[in-house]
Amino acid sequence: MIRTIIIDDEPLARSIIKEYLQRHPQIELVQECNDGFEGIKAIMQHHPDLIFLDIQMPKINGFEMLELVEQPPAVIFTTAYDEYAIKAFENHAVDYLLKPFNQERFDKAINRWREKKTHNTEESTKPLLDTASKLPNQNQRIVVKTGSKIKIIPVDDILYLEAADDYVKIHTKEGAYLKNKTMAHFESALDPALFVRTHRSYIVHVQRITRIEPYEKENFLALLTTGAQVPVSKAGYTKLKSVLGI
To answer: Which CATH number characterizes residue 191's domain?
Structure first.
């Protein structure tokens, strides 16, 4: 038996998927979820083979929710028209259902998933999420998981980012949070007019810099409004001067 979960904040949308699933008796619906928070808990509890995931949801959207799942299941996205999201899907050959959809289109998505389910789900999902996180409507905040809690960090609250092994440590006034991404990812996803990679291991919010002081040899230190000090390499100093116009 194939286990599935529906994650969508619209009761009507969930009821339509349930109705269409009746033609697929080998798929068992184990839970319905109203939002991404419920969705994460349900995935951890049931370990489904497949989920139907809405993108536009309150609190955290579908992309953000999926980023927080360590081993994501196969996904069929359901969405109202979103040109950016659909472009991301098409680039990575992930199926999606454009609302409103009928039984025929639903069946086609199920059959397509069956044909692909032998492939590595994580390998297909991670590139999609990397692309999605760089879309204009996706790069204004970062969602992280701390224990059992989920924290939403507006990018304007970021002081600087620091490489931490396989993670990136996001420093804010409230504290530091780990995100399972690379420095290269954030360097390309964040606004280059506001965030500059000053060092191999650091990216700084330029509006949080109070001054730049010489350090050892050709290196510098950026002093931030909080008193934190961020290393600046020779190449990083050149980038900073360009962005700051000095």
So the answer is: 2.40.50.1020
Domain of residue 88, residue span:
2-132
CA distance 168 to 184: 10
Same-domain pairing of 70 and 170: no
Asked if 40 and 69 touch (Cβ cutoff 8 Å), the reply is yes
Helix (H) or strand (E) holding 40: helix 36-46
- Verify that 149 and 125 share a domain, yes or no: no
Neighbours of 174 (CB within 10 A): 9
234 burial type by CB count under 10 A (0-12 exposed, 13-18 middle, 19+ buried): exposed
| Range of lowest pLDDT (58-67, 102-111, 195-204) | 58-67
Q: What number is the average pLDDT over the span 104-109? A: 95
How many beta carbons lie within 10 A of that of residue 77, not counting itself? 24
Q: Give the CATH number of the domain where residue 16 resides.
A: 3.40.50.2300
Indicate the helix (H) or strand (E) that contains 214: strand 209-214
Tell me if 32 sits within 8 A of 6, measured CB to CB.
yes
Model confidence over 11-68: pLDDT tens digits? 999 999 999 999 999 999 999 999 999 999 999 999 999 999 998 898 898 889 988 9
Final residue before a domain boundary, out of 112, 132, 152: 132
pLDDT at 48: 95
- Residue 156 is predicted with a pLDDT of 95
H-type helices in the chain, by residue range? 11-21, 36-46, 62-67, 83-92, 103-116, 121-132, 183-189, 234-244
